[in-house]
Request: fold
Amino acid sequence: MTLGGKRILLIIAGGIAAYKSLDLIRRLRERGAVVRPIMTKAAQEFVTPLAVGALSASHVYTDLFSREDEQDVGHIRLARECDLVVVAPATADLMAKMAHGLADDLASAVLLASDRPILIAPAMNPKMWTASATQRNLATLQKDGIQFVGPMEGEMAESGERGLGRMAEPLDIVAAVEQQLSGPKPLAGMKAVVTSGPTHEPIDPVRYIANRSSGKQGHAIATALAKLGAEVTLVSGPVTISDPTGVRTVHVERAEEMRDAVLANLPVDIAVMVAAVADWRVASSADQKIKKLPGEAPAPLQLTENPDILKTVGHHAQRPRLVVGFAAETQNIDENGRSKLERKGADLIVANDVSAGTGAMGGDRNSVRLITKTGVEAWPDLSKTEVAERLALWIATHVSGTSR
Ligand code: CTP
Reply:
């Protein structure tokens, strides 16, 4: 019952995604929330007030000018007697009304009158989402402090078109609601930079040196820090997973670009260097594709050392209050971890056992040991998301106490 007793005012606008709002109501109530629904006129073309009323076990409010509704609670009380206003789906039209302060129906009047936090889940055709008018309205609403979940990339129900515009899934909306209502966040007001993924070091325009890092652990840590309220910049090497929500992601390819992006973000309070940065790059990568010449041995690759980003940050004049590094070890884990901690100027080394079969590199699970100046803490085998969430909490409890 993570939402026990929380009062959600759910505004359903008119879009095909309204069918998902029925599931959203169910999911919110399963977690103990009390859901009071408002439907726009257009929403009632997609789902019926009867279904919404039955699932929410509440009166469904539809009309600004209904004597009955106004006598019951009135739109001003409706707007304020809740812990959170959720708009799902939020159409381009409703976003435009909100951005301009229009109030010609119950939904828009309530949104204008509300002094409660507002979370909206946009859903519209991808062309409508990218239209400059919608993007202007989005910027205005973000400036006004409105929180967003989605939209997601995917295929549109009506047209089969692909692109950004699908409403976030009900469970993702529930997660965003829980995050909104979770009370004071321990990392609020703090900034963090996280590196993630591999780097690609070019040999020539078509070839590069890389490693098996997937970015899963680093991306999960960026998400977990953001959930605790930190303002997170994720500097990601080339990965196939998508950018986390609630985080600013900067994409880079090479180690030197990754270092520049990290340094450009200082000062921060917290640095977590998770990327599997290539230790070496090709000394001078070729401008043209290297051709194989019949009968000739291939030219040897001249390698040169890459900058050590963690070490640079750990010894920087603007050193973050808490510097965390990772270590990929197959043996003498604690000993190697401790010397890495010292050498790189980190406060914590998260050592993962990457011996064959553990699956830490590229897989979904990780078994780590936390190595600090004062000792070692062994965590059980966990999913990368669990490692990330626990680590974010560890960071939250240690960031205030550190001074090097
Ligand atoms: N790191 C970095 N820049 C580099 C190399 C590593 O920021 N050029 C960071 C990684 O993000 C990670 C830690 O340093 O936090 C890993 O250190 P590294 O010395 O590469 O150790 P291992 O990968 O564990 O391997 P080894 O000690 O065998 O080189």
